[in-house]
Every structure is written in C-alpha cells, then in structure tokens.
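Below is a typical protein record.
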Amino acid sequence: MLAVNNIEVIYDHVILVLKGVSLRVPEGGIVALLGANGAGKSTTLKAISGLLRTERGDVTKGSIELRGVPIQRRSPSEVVQRGVVQVMEGRHVFEHLTVEDNLLAGGYTRRNGDSLRGDLDLVYTYFPRLTQRRTTRAGYISGGEQQMLAIGRALMARPRLMLLDEPSMGLAPMLVAEIFEIVSRLNREENLAVLLAEQNVTVALKYAQHGYVMETGRIVLDGDAKTISENEDVKEFYLGLTGVGQRKSYRDVKHYRRRKRWLS
C-alpha cells in the first residue's frame, strides 16, 4: 500500500535528518517504526503526510508511493484526500471546540452530510467515552480522551492508512492498552492500515506484524514483530533496553559501536 523508497530529508536546506530511509506498509497491516527520541520517526511520518514542508523540511531524494503513485510532492490536504491521515504527537485537538465539533472538523474533505453523520456514529461506537463527552470542550477532557478524540477525528476522513505518532505518550498503561486495542479492532474490522511510530517497544510490537528500528535518521533493522521482540541484542543495542526492560545508562553502552559491528 505504502512504499517509502530510500528517502533523504533536509531541513532549512542544510540539516540532513533522514538518510536512505525505506519501509513498506501492506494493505490492512500494522507496521511499527521504533527508536529513541530524536531517531527520525516523526520526520518520517511527516514526510509521508506532506506536513514536512510546514516545518521547512523537504524530501530531497527518493520517493514515497501510495499504491504505486508518488505523493511526496503533494500538499497535506491532497494526501488526506488520497486516504492517508496523520495523528500527530501530542494530540493537537481544538481545545475551544466541543468533542463533536472536533470530530466533524476531521471530515472537512467530505461532501456528503448523511455519510458524515454515519461515520460520526461509527467513531462513537469505537470510542464510547467520546459519546459521553460530545458536548464538552476538548480542552477539558483527559489526555487519554484527547488521544481517542485525535484518532476519531482522523477516522472522519475515511483513511485507508493512518499514521500514528507516539499515541502512548503521557498516558497511563491501562489507557494505552485500551487505545491500542481499539486501533487493533479498527485494523481488523475496518481494514485500516497503520504505520505506528512508538518509543513504547513492548506495546507496539504486541500489535504490529512488522517492525523497523530507526537510529539517527536511518533504518538499522527490520523484521517481523515476533523476531524483533524476542531479540535481546536488538533490545539492548538499538532500543536501549536490558533484558528486564530497563533503560541502560550511557556508561553501560559505551562499547556500543564495537559490539554493534560484531553483531552485524
């Protein structure tokens, strides 16, 4: 469905951020893009959605194709109309609008009012918490509900591919599990493909079928989710985790480069 082919991204014409990034998202699949903060995950998603240009960034090499058609030069609204919607890190709801008005704003590219109302009911079916908050201003609901609202708003555009950027950030584990279960249901029941950028490796690989590991703007490893999740070397050297799931200190990984070469 989505093919990112050896792209390079530069900010302000001088700052090289992504170097030769390639990845694939199959029709109806969930793919995890993993890595530490600053690895380039958000930049990759913005390159796909067209939002990169709003931050003075540009795809200077390679191509991004949706069902074989290049989209890297399309505007964000055109990318949305082609079925790709990004849910940005930090949720970015319209705080002064009600929950329902936020959802309706997500269907701005749509023309059929009756169909829009049907999709609104669909969002409320998947996110029953939002039904109870429909007349509440979005700035007054919880962080978990705001994340649900951001995903629901994206659904109103009827995407075939959703780009989720750090949906677990700042949320309690129970809320994270609830949100990921809903995303998994959407994937199964609505055939919604998902590209998921996450630092929460454990939960991301629980729901994804395939994973890519990023480090300093490059894809350094990819494979099926089970293989990545069970590989202790990957968790230690690429994700900064020990065997018990605790982040290592800089002193602990001072021999990183030497051992990484040995592993390869």
Observations:
- Strands lie at 2-11, 15-25, 30-34, 57-66, 69-70, 84-87, 161-165, 193-198, 210-215, 218-224.
- The chain has two domains: 2-230, 232-264.
- The two ends are 30 Å apart (CA to CA).
- The longest strand covers residues 15-25.
